[in-house]
Amino acid sequence: MISMKLKTFFQVILFLAFFLPGWITEASGQKSFLTASNTAVFYPVDFDSALTLPSFSIEKDLLPWKEIPSGWEMRPQFSVENGKAIAKVTWTGHADLYGTGEVKGALKRNGTQVILWNTDNYGYGKASGKRLYQSHPWVFGVRPDGSSFGIIADHSWKQTISLTDTIIFTSDGPPFRIIIIEKDTPQELLKTLADLTGTIDMPPLWALGYQQCRFSYYPEARVRKIATEFRKRNIPCDVIWMDIDYMQNYKVFTFDSVHFPDPARLNNFLHQNGFKSVWMIDPGIKKERGYFVYDQGSAGHHWVLNSNREEFNGRVWPGTCAFPDFTIPETRRWWESLYKDFMQTGIDGVWNDMNEPSVFNGPGGSMPEDNIHRGGDALPEGTHLRYHNVYGLLMVQSSREGILKALPGKRPFVLSRSNFLGGQKYAATWTGDNVSSWDHLKMSTPMVLNLGLSGQPFSGPDIGGFSRSPDPELLAHWMAIGAFYPFSRNHAEKNTADQEPWAMGQMVEDVSRTALQRRYRLLPYLYTLFHEASTTGMPVMRPVWFADIRDTTLRGEQEAFLLGTDLLVIPKWSGKRRLPQGIWKSIALVGEDSQHDPYHPDLKLRGGAILPMSRVIQSTADFHTDSLTLLVCPDADHKAAGTLYVDAGEGFGYRTGDYEVNSFTARKSGKNALVVRCKTTGVRQTADKRCYQVGVVTDSGVVWSPWRKNSRIKVTGIL
Predict the structure, then answer these.
(1) What DSSP letter does each residue of 7-73 carry, written as one string?
(2) What CA–CA distance (Å, rounded) separates 476 from 496?
(3) Is the pTM of this model over 0.85?
(4) How far is residue 381's CA from residue 374's CA, in Å, rounded to a whole number?
(5) Residue 416 lies in a domain
(6) What is the b/e burial string over 707-719, where b = at least 16 CB atoms within 10 angstroms of the residue's CB?
(7) What is the mean pLDDT of the chain?
(8) What confidence tens digit (pLDDT) does each residue in 340-385 have?
(9) Residues 4 and 63 placed together within one structural domain of the fold
(10) Do residues 65 and 17 both lie within one domain?
């Protein structure tokens, strides 16, 4: 307690020392300043921290470093117009704009408008898709020379972002601060964003596998049948998902005694067959005396209140429901405790859905804006207008903590439909209830890319589309490209066609099998990219212009994309596309001829890259790095390099050094040979037990080495 007081005292002294010169002239407001990361923090004169802070996005205190230089160009203009707080940001010259989180539409956001009001938006039909399930008050700008800026409107109130030559943030709440980051490159910008808002933890390895879902798989016998079919047909898969029909009358933390009489037995069956299970938990709690969750919540005064300070009730799947008030610390701790017995049944991950929150009979499909959240600790009491956009964020924070306490030795996995800027620390996401259509297939890529450019690297759409039914052609194409999304899950609605890989005939089954075999061969590379995301904030899936940040002709490409820096993915359905210059050579992973195949994306390996790959497996339960393939694409100087990150795939040993980083280099040796060397750092040190096969990609095909247990491998006959 004393140390915290001393810390606060010195922070106050620093604050006063910095701001004293301007204190008299700006007595009603907070003075703007520059932080050490070339980040400027701007405050309107009438700023009241009690109405917008603490920040839900910024992880650490923003402390002044020095005054903002006079040459700092981008300075917001604050105003209040028609009762709305406004911040306008202009700049000289052109910039391509991205970010704004989960949005429908083109990759480039120039000329668009986004409404930040988390909405249950089935089929993206409300407000023409301008508001969806998450809010990211963040704009990412890139100038022609590659220099970049980022803008955060740091508050949680309902707001609109208009992106033209002037970026305008218009809020229904009080005046708010603006944070502007200036960096030389987009990569540096994203690293600074990650430093401010946090990065993902390393997910469990199994979360990178393919996942199968439906609203809903029930009864238990059908779940078993689905799992058995995957293994029988040799189609890789890691996870089976349970939607709300596993519950007793849609009551969370219960199990249907008829259809799911023994969830522990079912989970044990899945585990024995190499599967994990993820089960849904919604925030709507059925108003029913005798239901233990409702009784506990009522006794603990855990519910959101209406404007009369009475328990708010709204209709969701269970009927009339109450809703936890996650702004209350005691409520969050209570919610965490509910996961203990739930997870002990062998559940591996949790799906938080409907957490915008969705209220079927509420205004705009949610709670009234004048509902009351009582807060506690640093969070003040406030209306739903203030806390709506972070309701899902606060829920997944609590869910994640509950899972950690229930299963302390395992990495928690939470998927959330609703979230907020910075929420990547707590949950992966998907793009909500999309449609089985070619339009929604094609818009999936820019949606995932912009989520990555907004700090969320772990996302993907419902493969195949959630609503309506795809035809075989559409499903085949979606499975083929869906194998390369960071989060790869097929999900379909009730009363639609089955979308399991075998459900629409042999063609779709064969395409799906090959697509997923490609993904599983890439697991070493994908896992390494997730490690990079967890340490630097770099997205796993990236726009092609990341390959050359000064090539402005690439800025609008939204069909092809990059995985990391080395792998270019080009869908078969893409039209006229812009691809990066330089050496990019087509590769095959499982013997497929993707250049002529009608479904599988063409994969191109960057010149200068070394791609680590594993063997084809049926699930990550069989994943090992004792034998790896290194695919080498030399650059113009006959050189290449690559990285492989390895840890246990589960648990937290990596935090204390139980991992290894393998650095691969390739150099020409003599006239027609290439030598690949491996250097390993870290305490795990399994590389000396590993066998490698090296394949060098040439214009006439791949030249292979024998399998060798060696840190130096020579490949001859490459020229």
Answers:
(1) HHHHHHHHHHHHHGGGTTTTTTSPPPEE-TTSEEEE--TT--HHHH-S-SS--S-----BPPPTT--
(2) 16
(3) yes
(4) 4
(5) no
(6) eeeebebebeebe
(7) 94
(8) 999 999 999 999 999 999 999 999 999 999 999 999 999 999 999 9
(9) no
(10) no
Assess whether 548 and 692 both reside in one domain.
yes
In a shared domain, residues 21 and 144? no
CA distance 711 to 676: 8
Would you give the end-to-end CA distance of the chain in angstroms?
A: 70
Separation between Cα atoms, residue 71 and residue 451, nearest integer Å:
32
Distance, CA of 337 to CA of 300 (rounded, Å): 13
Please tell me whether residues 1 and 89 are part of one structural domain.
no
Q: Which of 197, 229, 245 is the last residue of a domain?
A: 197
Give the burial class of 392: count Cβ atoms within 10 A of its Cβ; 0-12 exposed, 13-18 middle, 19 or more buried.
buried
Structure tokens at 645: 């990150």
What CATH number has the domain bearing residue 662?
Answer: 2.60.40.1180
Question: Does 179 lie in the same domain as 78?
Answer: yes
Q: Residue 406 contacts by C-beta under 8 Å, 6 or more apart in sequence?
A: 339, 340, 342, 343, 344
Number of domains in the chain: 3
Which CATH number is 134's domain given?
2.60.40.1760
Are 7 and 138 members of one domain? no
Q: Which among 40, 131, 51, 136 is positioned nearest to 89, based on CA atoms?
A: 40
Domain boundary among 142, 162, 197: 197
Other Cβ atoms within 10 Å of 405 Cβ, number: 15
395 occurs within a structural domain = no
Chain segment 124-175, per-residue pLDDT in tens: 999 999 999 999 999 999 999 999 999 999 999 999 999 999 999 999 999 9
pLDDT digit string, tens, across residues 52-91: 999 999 998 899 999 999 999 999 999 999 999 999 999 9
In a domain, 436, yes or no: no
Tens-digit pLDDT profile for residues 482-492: 999 999 999 99
- Alpha carbon distances (Å) from 374 to 117, 173, 365, 419: 20, 18, 22, 20
The sheet that has 239-242: what strands, in order across it? Answer: 459-460, 428-430, 414-416, 349-352, 276-281, 239-242, 211-212, 489-490, 462-463
Contact 506/229 with Cβ under 8 angstroms? no
Tell whether omega for the bond before 216 is within 30 degrees of 0, i.e. cis: yes
Domain, as residue range, for 686: 530-716
Question: For residues 219, 220, 226 and 232, what is the CA-based torsion angle, rounded to 10 degrees?
Answer: -140
In this structure, the chain runs to a length of 719
Which residues are catalytic, by number?
353, 356, 433
Asked if 274 and 618 touch (Cβ cutoff 8 Å), the reply is: yes
113 and 19 in a common domain:
no
- Examine residue 202 and state whether it is found in any structural domain, yes or no: no
Cβ atoms of 631 and 605 within 8 Å: the answer is yes
User: Nearest to residue 188, comparing CAs of 538, 528, 452?
Assistant: 538
